[in-house]
Amino acid sequence: VAGFEGAGTVQALGEGTGGPAPGTRVAVSATGTWQEEVCVPETDVFPLPDGVPLDVGCQLTVNPYTAVLLLREAALERGDTLLLTAGASAVSRMTVHLARARGVRCLPVVRRTKQARALAHMGAEPVLVSSARELTKTALAIAGQRRVDAVLDAVGGATGTAALRCLRPGGQFLSYGMLSGSPIRVSPDELVFRQVTLRGFWLPEGMARLDGQESRRLTGEVEAAVAHGLPGLEVAEHHDLADFRAALRRARQPGRTGRVVLTG
To answer: Which CATH class is domain 5-60+232-263?
Structure first.
C-alpha cells in the first residue's frame, strides 16, 4: 500500500501501549497510509494541535520537518544568502518562510512569473529563469559580489550544477532531492581550491540521529511554525481513496497551487 503520511483519529491502543488515547486526532508517519485504517507504533503518531484540520495534519510529518532540519543543517546566520532550487515547492516555501524570519536572504529559483510574485510577497528575491543555462548568471546578479552562502537543491542535473556554481568559497551545498533524475557535475576545483562542501540530506536519516528529547523539541518547533502560518500546506483538491488514480493524475499536473489529498 502506498503513502508515507496521513492523519486520522485513534481508534484503539494495543496492550501496553502508551500512545495517544482513543479519540485523539493525530498525524501519522508510516508507510501504507493510503487505506482506511493503519496499525502503527506509538512513535509514529503525533497529536494534532487544536485548530489544525485533518487535511493539513496529513501533511505535517514530511515537508515541515524537512524544512526545519534543512535550515538546521545549513546553520545560516542573519544576512547570509540562501539559494533554493525548485523554489515554488512546498518545502522551499516553508524554508523561505522560516529563513526570512531569521534574517536570511532567500533566492528561490522558479520558472513562472506567478510563482515569482508569490515568493516576492513572502520577502524572497526570486530567480526567474526559463532554463538552467540562465541560472548562474541571473542568480549572481541578484546575490551580488559575495555570491551565496548555501544552496538547497531538490533537482540535481543541470539545475543543481548551475546552482553549485553560485556558491562563495567555503559555501555549502545540500542535496535533498533528485527531481531531474540526473547527476550533478562537480569539478575538483570546487572542492580543492574553492573549498565548497557538498552533503546529502534524507529525512529518515536526519530523524534517526535525534534522541527522544531532540525529537520532541523538533516537533514543538514544527507545531509552532504551523500555528504561525507556515505556507506550503494549502489543499487544492480532495479525492476519495477509491478515486486514487484520478488523484494521482491530478497531482502530476503542473501549475497546482496546493496538495491533492486522499480522504476515507
So the answer is: alpha beta
